[in-house]
Design goal:
Elements (H helix, E strand, L loop, with lengths): L9 E2 L1 E2 L3 H17 L5 H14 L1 E3 L2 E5 L3 H24 L1 H28 L1 E3 L2 E5 L3 H17 L5 H14 L1 E3 L2 E5 L3 H26 L3 H9 L5 H36 L1 E3 L3 E5 L3 H17 L5 H14 L1 E4 L4 H15 L16
Antiparallel strand pairs: 1-11, 2-3, 3-4, 4-5, 5-6, 6-7, 7-8, 8-9, 9-10, 10-11
Amino acid sequence: MSIGLPSDAKPFKFKGNAREWFGIWIVNLLLSILTIGIYSAWAKVRAKKYFCNNTYVEGRNFDYHATGKQILIGRLIIIAFFVVFQVILTTAPVLGLILAVGLIFAYPWLIVRSMQFNARMTSFSNVRFGFVGTTGQAVLVFLIYPILMALTLYTTFPIWDRAVKRFSIDNHKLGQARFKFDAGLGAFYKALLAALTWILAVGVIGVLVTGFSFSAFYIALDNAESDPGVAIAAVGLIYLMFFAAILPAAFIYQALVRNEVYNTTTLEGGHRFASCVSAPRLLWLAISNMVVVVFTLFLMLPWAQVRMARYLTSHTGLIPGDTLDEFVNQQQAEGSAAGDAYTDLEGIDVGLPV
């Protein structure tokens, strides 16, 4: 059960509606199909702009300033690179392998470039965001940490997850005001422990109720030809296990971590954030959205997206340290003095969920 936002928090609001978003979404989809994907760059801009424009806090909303041309240029650069890479890999395999290794180390640079672009193209009340992370930091977070995580059999996953969120939040700024992330590592391990506890509990209950185990599953698969009914039932139980154990566990972790991240993030000027999403409610929204979308052949996808956006924004709040008017005016003045840099960035986006 959700505790609720603090009494002094100003909740975010999403003012979009499914009917309006459906009109934009269906046009985006049809034009993207008719242009063999070319229009998808403009479709992405229209989508991000719609959701930003309709997200408010204290009467002020966000905006997205990228153009379809910028996004398309970024995509063409990436596509051209991979075409050249495939040609080299085919004609000169040794050189191709060297380039493949280089590509691994280029990934952190792409991440930084992507986050710079997305931050700079987003604003709140006409104040642009910014991102000041370095490629060196990205190498540590996205190359070194994953290697160490694999070597520790993923028991250090919470350490990596916190590092990713710290890299993203600490390097973002609104105008000249920096964000600060101060979540403790213990909260991430508690979230993981809660998720694993759910999986274990469901697994034990499932075995006790059905008498089914993984050894029985493999035996059923081995005997699939002679007894296909049992094999089908075994596969069905595995799917049931996924929906009853793994999926809820993922939402338990996501909800607990999201609340911790927002509740420990601040913005220079004494501004704080709050989140109070509920894992059961988040799970219900995700599953019911999925069922409705599938049974309507994806025509209700805009409704599902608006429904989720409305829930997440209404359970997210800002606790201002001072009036937003004063903060915005100060950042607009400092932003004008600093100049409007990086507006020529290509729309490179690696789609990180951070």
